[in-house]
Design goal:
The chain is of the alpha/beta class. The protein has 8 helices and 7 strands; from the N terminus they run βαβαβαβαβαβαααβ.
Length: about 270
């Protein structure tokens, strides 16, 4: 499908640096998979990442000519400058995907201020600053679409990290505000809420040894793939989702539908 022909998309957090999957040479994270899918659908894609070389590696594999930009999500000025670079390069901006995020492992008892501040800066502030910078040109052209890449930790507690859970929940609040406030002016905003995805980040943090265990808690009995997350994003930013806004699309293999645990249902 070429649903995004002629459109310009910016993917914040579109690089990847984790271990590769078996048989692959390119580390595949959610942001990289999303950038590749949007280009396959015809979009001109600008890829932002803290590490320019990782963004450039994504651009080199796009199906359409693209641009790599360096952006520090923890720096407000850098977030705004990246959007300005997109507009300078392409002259318009139709799609923004806010994928960048960091995890944490501190529960309430030991939650530190520094960890909280960094999680807020990257997981929430960078997203609303990016949306704020992109909003005006979208309003001028009368259309635009945002997708925020969230986590089931923002809806259900994993008991692991207070800062991660709280910021991922706040991210959904940003999405809903954009959706409702600007819906009548042609702006749509949605989120994909991801469960256990076999991304490069997950493999780097948890290793391949735990892959079977991570998949075992999913009713579909496997982890999701970054490409499946990308397919959900491509739908939400396309005209096929033209009447969809303010929604959190769960991409979790059925985890959120299972009670008390998937393993207890057989």
């Amino acid at each position: 499908m070429r649903r995004l022909e002629g459109r310009v998309a910016y993917v914040l957090g579109g690089g990847s640096d984790g271990p590769v999957r078996a048989g692959e040479s390119l580390p595949m994270g959610n942001g990289r998979a999303i950038a590749l899918r949007l280009a396959e659908e015809g979009a001109t894609v600008v890829v932002g990442d803290l590490h320019l070389d990782r963004a450039q590696a994504t651009v080199e594999h796009l199906a359409t000519p693209g641009l790599a930009v360096q952006v520090d999500a923890a720096d407000p000025g850098s977030c705004r400058d990246a959007v300005a670079a997109v507009l300078a390069h392409a002259g318009r901006l139709d799609v923004v995907v806010c994928n960048v995020g960091i995890s944490g492992r501190e529960p309430l008892k030991v939650q530190s201020l520094d960890d909280w501040a960094l999680a807020d800066a990257v997981n929430v502030r960078s997203h609303w600053l990016t949306a704020q910078a992109a909003l005006e040109p979208m309003l001028e052209q009368g259309r635009g679409s945002f997708v925020f890449v969230g986590s089931t930790a923002g809806v259900y507690s994993s008991r692991r990290s207070l800062s991660y859970e709280a910021t991922k929940a706040a991210q959904l609040g940003v999405m809903r505000h954009v959706a409702v406030r600007y819906a009548a002016r042609g702006i749509r905003a949605n989120a994909v809420v991801l469960g256990n995805i076999d991304s490069a980040l997950v493999r780097r943090e948890f290793g391949d040894a735990g892959a079977e265990a991570r998949g075992s808690v999913v009713p579909m009995a496997r982890q999701g793939r970054p490409e499946e997350a990308a397919g959900a994003v491509a739908f939400l930013v396309s005209d096929d989702a033209g009447y969809v806004t303010g929604q959190s699309l769960l991409v979790d293999g059925g985890v959120s539908a299972a009670w008390p645990t998937p393993s207890a249902i057989s």
